[in-house]
Amino acid sequence: MRVLYFHQHFSTPQGSVGIRSYEMSRRLLARGHQVTMVCGSYGGGETGLSQPFVRGRRRGQVAGIDVVEFDLSYSNSDGFAKRALTFLKFALRSIGLVFTEQYDVVFATTTPLTAGIPGIFARWLRGKPFVFEVRDLWPELPRAMGVIRNPLVLWAMSVLEWVSYRSAHRLVGLSPGIVEGIVRLGVPPERVAMVPNGCDLGIFGAAVDPWRPESIRGGDLMAVFAGTHGLANGLDAVLDAAAELKRRGRKDIKLLLIGQGKLKSALQARAKLEDLDNVVFHEPVNKVRLAGLMAATDLGLQILDNVPAFYYGTSPNKFFDYIAAGLPVLNNYPGWLAELIQQHGCGFAVPPANPKAFADALEQAAGNREALKVMGARGHALAMEVFDRVALADHWVDWVTGGQSLARRTDVE
């Protein structure tokens, strides 16, 4: 089967961002299918292509995947207007491929929500099966965060959401709340599957060279946040905990923030102003290098802003990387991940906006390293038993390729 796969933010493991689409594509190939990946140029991502763009795009084979990359750069630091324009340009150029490529199934994954537009055209104008993957609920999340307030924009996004869901023969949600949100809009539950982000055990379970930044001593407890430094991440909570630890005189606990994002410079400025020398900033690294860092880390930080829409409506890559590496996790907001941590005893679930509870958990971790190792082992067992990327990808492949037969039944009905 030939799968035309749209993901604007595609990256190989050589990049510093999520690699779900890469791993899913590789699993399709392993099952005998063909994949054409259509993407843009994402800050922190690596598509694997290096030749010059010709007429706004370049094309080549990357690990067996036929990659089409548009010359459309995107970064989380871009303003709203620039990001929206880039999203629309990608969708419009992708529509052209819907009418020129040879394929059996079209698959599109968010974010952004506009990624579903080529799938809509493929379904209604070419009669092709369309499978849509939803990584975040739009416009619910930007509305809840207050980053989009224009009622006309929110209305347009709501319409696009409804049309995308109703056009898809099958849908994939990455968390319980996402699946519930899709069904709430009238999609039959039997057409929606939950396939969360998975654990790349082949990367984080491989033999690696452990490393730490030079400013963090080997005996210090090192807690790491690895991800985007943006509005949604609420990383001021980490600095609040750092300030509390400093008041307590705990110089042996270091908080490492590794990544990039729109608010990184503001976070760095605050840390400097408050003399938070227990917070260390580091540039993003690729997955192999990250695995080496995780091998020398004591605790993974799963941090998000206290927005109720996040509680059950997100599936963060970093959580799965942490448990794949055998790290206990400190989570600072309620929801399905906090419940997993508590149920399996693989870390700490602290209340949001509570720097004292955050600092208490870090002190508890520093004071009992053996218990920390036990928590990490439980998390790793959870990774292998429930969130192994290979097993999840097999389920995903069956769901995506089964969309063709569902499309035939729908057309008959």
Short description:
The chain has helices at 20-30, 80-100, 117-126, 140-145, 151-167, 176-184, 201-204, 236-247, 264-273, 287-295, 308-313, 317-324, 336-344, 355-367, 369-385, 389-401, 403-412; strands at residues 2-6, 34-42, 57-62, 65-74, 105-109, 130-134, 170-173, 192-194, 221-226, 253-258, 279-282, 299-302, 329-331, 347-349.
How many domains in all? 2
Strand content: 15-25%
CA(first)-CA(last) distance: 24 Å
Number of E strands? 14
Number of helices: 17
Task: Give the overall shape.
Answer: globular
Low-confidence stretches: none
Could you say what the CATH architecture of the largest domain is? 3-Layer(aba) Sandwich
User: Could you please say which CATH topology of the largest domain applies here?
Assistant: Rossmann fold
CATH superfamily of the largest domain: Glycogen Phosphorylase B
Sheet with most strands: 8 strands, mixed
CATH class of the largest domain: Alpha Beta
Class by alpha and beta content: alpha/beta
Mean pLDDT: 94
Radius of gyration: 21 Å
Structural commentary:
This protein has 413 residues and is an alpha/beta fold. It has two domains: 2-198 and 388-412, Rossmann fold (3-Layer(aba) Sandwich); 202-385, Rossmann fold, CATH 3.40.50. It has helices spanning 20-30, 80-100, 117-126, 140-145, 151-167, 176-184, 201-204, 236-247, 264-273, 287-295, 308-313, 317-324, 336-344, 355-367, 369-385, 389-401, 403-412, and strands at 2-6, 34-42, 57-62, 65-74, 105-109, 130-134, 170-173, 192-194, 221-226, 253-258, 279-282, 299-302, 329-331, 347-349. An eight-stranded mixed β-sheet has the order 3-4-2-1-5-6-7-8, with helices on both faces. A six-stranded parallel β-sheet has the order 11-10-9-12-13-14. Helix 2 runs parallel beside helix 3 and helix 3 crosses helix 5 (151-167). It is globular. The mean pLDDT is 94.
